[in-house]
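Marked as duplicate of an earlier ticket. Keeping the data here for the record.
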Amino acid sequence: MMQRKPTVISADITENSATLTLKIDRALEDFKGHFPQYSILPGVTQIDLAVNYAREYFGLTGSFGGMEVIKFQEPILPDMTVTLSLTWDAEKQKLYFRYDSGQSAHSSGRMLLSECE
């Protein structure tokens, strides 16, 4: 069976923020073919995971409205443990995300999401 999501080690959820500790399992489907000699978690996967966790934890059902800001600083490698921080600004309809580990910041961004359709 193909693994589509990382293992959630812990989750601290409030009304408008979530801090998830994730193990980026080597078995994730998204690693396949993304630089076979040096696997990294694709940026599009990082964005997709942030949106999906925001929908799950904040109850968002609307559509993706595009990226405003995104930075990829350091690759996320197989079996790495990272923290995904999410903040939902309902008034502005913006989701802020950040992936980091004890070593460094990996990526961050801001995207537009409609709260409901």
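See parent ticket for discussion. The beta strands are 7-13, 17-24, 64-72, 80-89, 94-100, 105-113.
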